Amino acid sequence: MDEQLEGTEVPAPISDEPIRVLIVDDHALFRRGLVMVLEQEKDIDLVGEAGDGAEAVNIAQDTMPDVVLMDVRMPRRGGIEATSQIKAIAPHTKILMLTISDEEADLYDAIKAGASGYLLKEISIEEVANAIRQVHAGQSMISPSMASKLLTEFATMVKKTDEKPAAAQPRLTEREMEVLRLVAKGRNNRDIAKELFISENTVKTIPLAFFSPAKDPSHRRGSSPQGRRSPRRPRRRFRARDAGPVRHRAARAHRYLPRAPGGRGGPRRDPSRSVRSRP
Predict the structure, then answer these.
(1) Per residue, what are the HEC states of 159-198?
(2) pLDDT band at 220, cuts 50/70/90?
(3) What are phi and psi of 76, to 5 degrees?
(4) How far apart, in whole angstroms, are the C-alpha atoms of residue 87 and residue 112?
(5) What residues pair up with 97 in beta bridges, in sequence order?
(6) pLDDT attached to residue 225
(7) Can you tell me the distance from the alpha carbon of 81 to that of 257, in angstroms, rounded to the nearest whole number?
(8) Are 63 and 22 in contact (CB under 8 A)?
(9) Confidence band (pLDDT; 50, 70, 90) for 232?
(10) CB contact burial 190-226 (16+ within 10 A = b; e otherwise)
(11) Which residues sit opposite 99 in a β-bridge?
């Protein structure tokens, strides 16, 4: 990452073909000053000007510039949003942010959007031409004050990553460890079951539980909070009243009918209801 250091400017290589540049800034006087300076450079060709991000996207789509000088804070559409859109329609275009905003959030968002550089307007206008050349050559340009903020943020992120606790690993029982050791040795399920005196189904379920996506010991069989399966609910016995009021009454009447002699054969038939009468 190259920094624009005061008094140590490194001249960028001059390309054989002119660099096509688009200027985007909502201040007309600032744009006019850039135009006057860049028109004197033989290797820079100005292809357009825009006063906001929306206009910049339209011009970039028509002209396909090599480098875009982009402001951050503009009406209608900001420079960061315009940067993302221009990179989508013209990936080869290099975008150099030239702004007065020294906020870290704007710097990070611009880099995420695809900007190749971030310069503050505190640099002299004559230095802009060399910055365009360096960005066009594939280098990155960031003002020293913004580069220090970027490095500080990067160091903070690295520190947080190092201090982040490791994810809790599932704890295996001794029997599960024995099964996995034998699996690693290439033993089949039948041999493992015979050696450990367990069923083959148990041997099959242990590796599957360990390599499941959740990898959570609470998801394995027999690992409920109480350490065992939840008790099953007892089945409800059928009672006559569960069949509805009609069957309930029929069952009660059937209970009190006189039974046949000897207590077998069901209830005694009523002779008066017989179809055929006895002689």
Answers:
(1) HHHHHCCCCCCCCCCHHHHHHHHHHHCCCCHHHHHHHHCC
(2) very low
(3) 65, -65
(4) 11
(5) 70, 118
(6) 43
(7) 90
(8) yes
(9) low
(10) eebbeeeeeeeebbeebeebbeeeeeebeebeebeee
(11) 120
Cα 21 to Cα 41: distance, rounded to the nearest angstrom: 12
Q: Which two tokens stand for residue 118?
A: 């971030």
Among 29, 44, 89, 28, smallest CA distance to 64 is for: 89
pLDDT band at 192 (very low <50, low <70, confident <90, very high): confident
- Strands 44-50, 19-24: pairing is parallel
Q: How far is CA 23 from the centre of its chain?
A: 36
202 versus 139: the higher-pLDDT residue is 139
> How many angstroms separate the CA atoms of 41 and 49, rounded?
17
**97 or 216: which carries more pLDDT confidence?**
97
Note whether 57 and 102 are within 8 A (CB).
Answer: no
Count CA atoms closer than 13 A to 104's CA, side-chain side: 8
In a 13 Å sphere around the CA of 78, the CA atoms on its Cβ side amount to 10
Tokens of 39: 């028109």
pTM above 0.90, yes or no: no
Q: Are 12 and 133 in contact (CB under 8 A)?
A: yes
Query: Is 240 or 74 the better-scoring residue by pLDDT?
Result: 74
